């Protein structure tokens, strides 16, 4: 298993091009199943999660070819409506093929994604929405067996709480349903509007995406389209926090500040100077030590859960005490004990972590059990004294494109150690 060796203490100077958003790419890729015509996606990050979904799409009969960051998908004929356990269990986003298969073919058998390192993460809201649209849903030996032989119909769906995946899944199923579907309490993450843009380019009729009420008027069929995946806001935020820890000045291109929601003013308050440029953002650390700051993770536009771990790494050496409350996932502090191994002073009580900033962390061998937690260890290592060895790099390969290359070109001492 590959490792990353990082020697801390070098400020970052230079430019990093932000990749397309993983969590948008995975959903627009699933949208290709809805049409028998080609879908061309630009700005698709080359990540292990993208490859994993491509393997699943191939199993359904989708032809795919990459050229640079452009991905051409063609689901001319669906050859199988089965999404097997082996391909779904490794990545929860795979579950989102259920709605498109059901909408287009009238039936699908998709493995339940199961639990994951950050929490139980059920799919009850996804299934209730499909049932409201007329599908019969049964669970059998770990599989969801869904049928809608005469097609799906529009429905009024009011989610009891915000779910990104369930909002996207409902949109993916509703575009080919008869009549109008209204989604209330919809997630407002930028990836939702990106998916709606892609589906509308394919001929769907979706309005309101990005707001709390989304209306989808079903159409008979979708057609060929091109779509550019929006910038990865989590990658953007992570590199901003790398500056917060290592110091220096980075220009992040091909991204936008508004995608960060509440994270942007929060980072400014800690002492980062953030400037919008024509093509992105410029970030500079204005004080020797950042100021402690309290955050609560919330659905967009609140502070994103996917930046919580990285923020904790940054607060580990800030001046003062910060509290970090995680309200989205029940088990998303696995990075805390690892950061503590580097000398961080963190105590966790339920959904709140208290971080007492120390002057400096010390390199250590560390590992994490999920993608964002692993990134928090990389960020901590960039400012730590001595060498940190981050184990289980495959987590990072799932979601950060060319991570070590991007950081090394800005002066970080970071190297992949192959094993
Ligand atoms: C998406 O997960 C992202 N994944 C996550 O990013 C992100 O952390 C999350 O949204 C929140 O922003 C992808 O887009 C592939 P949710 P998702 O449904 O859709 C509960 C990363 O690191 N829930 O908004 O699965 C759920 O357990 C990943 O890139 C139900 O109870 O998140 C959670 O507590 C990690 N029943 C909360 O809702 C359901 O049917 C919000 O989850 C659905 C969700």
Compact description:
Helices cover 31% and strands 26% of the residues.
What does this structure look like?
By secondary structure, the chain is an alpha/beta fold. The protein has two domains: 3-19 and 231-417, Alpha-beta prism (UDP-n-acetylglucosamine1-carboxyvinyl-transferase, Chain), CATH 3.65.10.10; 22-220, Alpha-beta prism (UDP-n-acetylglucosamine1-carboxyvinyl-transferase, Chain), CATH 3.65.10.10. It has helices at 22-31, 48-59, 85-88, 98-105, 124-132, 164-174, 190-201, 233-246, 263-270, 308-315, 335-341, 371-383, 394-399, 403-408, and strands at residues 3-7, 12-17, 38-42, 63-67, 70-74, 82-83, 107-111, 136-140, 143-147, 156-158, 180-184, 205-207, 214-217, 225-228, 248-253, 272-276, 280-285, 295-296, 321-325, 345-349, 352-356, 365-367, 387-391, 413-417. The strands form six sheets. It has a four-stranded mixed β-sheet with strand order 22-23-1-24. Strands 2-15-17-16 form a four-stranded mixed β-sheet. It has a four-stranded mixed β-sheet with strand order 4-5-3-14. Helix 8 (233-246) packs parallel to helix 10. The mean pLDDT is 96. Bound molecules: ligand EPZ. The site of ligand EPZ has 24 residues, from helix 1, helix 5, helix 6 and helix 12.
Set down the secondary structure blueprint:
Layout: E1 3-7, E2 12-17, H1 22-31, E3 38-42, H2 48-59, E4 63-67, E5 70-74, E6 82-83, H3 85-88, H4 98-105, E7 107-111, H5 124-132, E8 136-140, E9 143-147, E10 156-158, H6 164-174, E11 180-184, H7 190-201, E12 205-207, E13 214-217, E14 225-228, H8 233-246, E15 248-253, H9 263-270, E16 272-276, E17 280-285, E18 295-296, H10 308-315, E19 321-325, H11 335-341, E20 345-349, E21 352-356, E22 365-367, H12 371-383, E23 387-391, H13 394-399, H14 403-408, E24 413-417
Parallel strand pairs: 2-15, 3-14, 6-7, 10-11, 18-19, 22-23
Antiparallel strand pairs: 1-23, 1-24, 3-5, 4-5, 7-9, 8-9, 11-13, 12-13, 15-17, 16-17, 19-21, 20-21
Helix pairs in contact: 1-2, 1-7, 4-6, 5-6, 6-7, 8-10, 8-12, 10-12
The chain binds ligand EPZ.
Ligand EPZ is lined by residues 23, 26, 92-93, 119, 121-126, 163-166, 187, 189, 305-306, 328-329, 371-372, 399.
């Amino acid at each position: 298993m590959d490792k990353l060796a990082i020697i801390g203490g070098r400020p970052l100077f230079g430019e990093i091009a932000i990749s397309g958003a993983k969590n948008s790419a995975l959903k627009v890729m699933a949208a290709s199943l809805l049409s028998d015509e080609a879908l061309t996606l630009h700005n698709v990050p080359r990540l292990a999660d993208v490859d994993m979904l491509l393997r699943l799409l191939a199993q359904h009969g989708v032809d795919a070819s990459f050229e640079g960051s452009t991905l051409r998908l063609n689901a001319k004929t669906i050859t199988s409506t089965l999404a097997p356990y082996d391909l779904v269990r490794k990545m929860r986003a795979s579950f989102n093929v259920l709605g498109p298969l059901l909408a287009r073919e009238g039936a699908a058998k998709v493995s339940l994604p199961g639990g994951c390192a950050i929490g139980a993460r059920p799919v009850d809201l996804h299934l209730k929405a499909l049932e409201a649209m007329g599908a019969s849903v049964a669970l059998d030996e770990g599989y969801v067996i869904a049928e809608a032989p005469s097609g799906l119909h529009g429905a009024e769906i009011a989610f009891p709480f915000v779910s990104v995946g369930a909002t996207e899944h409902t949109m993916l199923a509703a575009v080919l349903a008869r009549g109008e579907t209204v989604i209330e309490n919809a997630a407002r993450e930028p990836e939702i509007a990106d998916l709606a843009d892609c589906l509308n380019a394919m001929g769907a009729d979706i309005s309101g995406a990005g707001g709390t009420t989304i209306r989808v008027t079903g159409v008979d069929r979708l057609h060929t389209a091109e779509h550019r995946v929006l910038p990865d806001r989590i990658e953007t935020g992570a590199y901003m926090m790398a500056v917060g820890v290592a110091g220096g000045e980075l220009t992040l291109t091909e991204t936008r500040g508004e995608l960060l929601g509440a994270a942007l003013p929060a980072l400014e308050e800690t002492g980062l100077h953030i400037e919008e440029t024509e093509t992105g953002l410029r970030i500079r650390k204005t004080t020797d030590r950042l100021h402690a700051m309290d955050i609560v993770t919330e659905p967009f536009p609140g502070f994103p859960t996917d930046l919580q771990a990285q923020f904790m790494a940054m607060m580990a050496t800030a001046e003062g005490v910060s509290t970090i409350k995680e309200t989205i996932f029940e088990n998303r502090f696995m990075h805390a004990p690892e950061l503590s191994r580097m000398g961080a002073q963190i105590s966790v009580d339920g959904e709140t972590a208290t971080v007492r900033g120390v002057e400096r962390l010390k390199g250590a061998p560390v590992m994490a059990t999920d993608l964002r937690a692993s990134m928090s260890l990389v960020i901590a290592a960039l400012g730590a004294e001595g060498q940190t060895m981050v184990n289980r790099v495959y987590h990072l390969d799932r979601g950060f494109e060319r991570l070590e290359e991007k950081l090394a070109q800005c002066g970080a001492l970071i190297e992949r150690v192959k094993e």
